[in-house]
Write a structure and sequence with these properties.
Layout: E1 4-9, H1 13-24, E2 29-35, H2 38-47, E3 52-55, H3 64-75, E4 80-85, H4 90-99, E5 103-106, H5 113-128
Parallel strand pairs: 1-2, 1-3, 3-4, 4-5
Helix pairs in contact: 2-3
Amino acid sequence: MDKIKAAIADDSELIRHRLAQKLERIPEIELAWQTGDGRAAVEWFMRKRPDIMILDVQMPSMTGLEILQNLKPGKSGETVFIVLTNYPVEVVKRKCLEAGADYFFDKTTEFEKIFEVIRSVSQNRAAEK
């Protein structure tokens, strides 16, 4: 079975490290790339399209919302976008979901939910094959 490719775009090195460590423990997942810069995330995305992209809202050079607006309309294929943020206010959530985020989680209170989603995506993809 092909592994699910995940990518991380978050300006916090600590968050990237925590996410990467947890992703490495899921056998069906391969960490394709990670970056702390918004523009770099778009460039990496276009070169190595992940199946799952974990995205912060606030990053240098381009916000997570701008990334969604750039990638989601017809360029993302089957990629599942998970927004993970310290800014879980309703207006930010609404804008991200309208721009194409599939999930929106608060870093402080919903961090572990990401891995439930990833396992679900992995199981669904395996069932499709």
